[in-house]
Amino acid sequence: MQLICPLCRAPLNQNDKQWGCTNNHRFDSAKEGYVNLLPVQKKRSKQPGDDDEMMRNRQAFLNAGYYNFFAEALANAIRQHQPNANSLLDLGCGEGFYGEAIKRQLPDLGIGAIDIAKGGVKRAAKRKIYSSLAVASCREIPYADASFDACLSVFAPLAVEECYRTLKTDGLLVIAGPAPMHLEGLARCIYAEFRKHSSIIQKLKYSGHFELIASTTAEQTVTIKGDAIYQLLTMTPYYWHASPEVQTALKEMAELKTPLAFEIHCLRKI
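Predicted structure:
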């Protein structure tokens, strides 16, 4: 898991509390154990990524266990299609929920991770399961070529060429996103008509880099209770379309029944 400089792409080495390259670019190592490799000139906003409230709500919702079955399905996909994997790159790791769930299922797997949101990376660091952790963009992955046996992207932006570069020969790319009926119950609280989600794989231009080897759906209908309903809203794009009145109603709602449905696609590097 060789980190590389985000400015010149030279290898980075850690010396005391700093990471540096031969071109004298220096990056401080945070006390929590991560390094910020997102230079100011490459930020698109002052605080890129999800804000603190959204991350706090998402962490509370995920820790409540509603998505555990989905996380287990991700681990099973890696186990089935890359059984000898020693290393995984967790792209857009957020606060580390999926990384930790996979580590429980595959304890010998070394996991590197990046996310553009510093707050998320700080939370992920507290889980103490990552071998390497950095604030960075998925569009410019700060790891050397052929560093990983597998890459995981869950509801995260994806640069196919960067995944291809950082994966080893025959590496596995696992991509997950919403299946058609995902969160139908929540959506019907916001819109007069529910529109099914389109397949994420149809939008992905992977030809020439990867071949699709397997697709599956993980789905359950659940009853979400209490504060978790509003927490769920804030971690989805539906939040930006919910009126103040709808947000208040969801905060006061005791129960919400909805499908949780996820597509999982496995692609092999060619």
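Summary: The CA atoms of residues 182 and 261 lie 4 Å apart.
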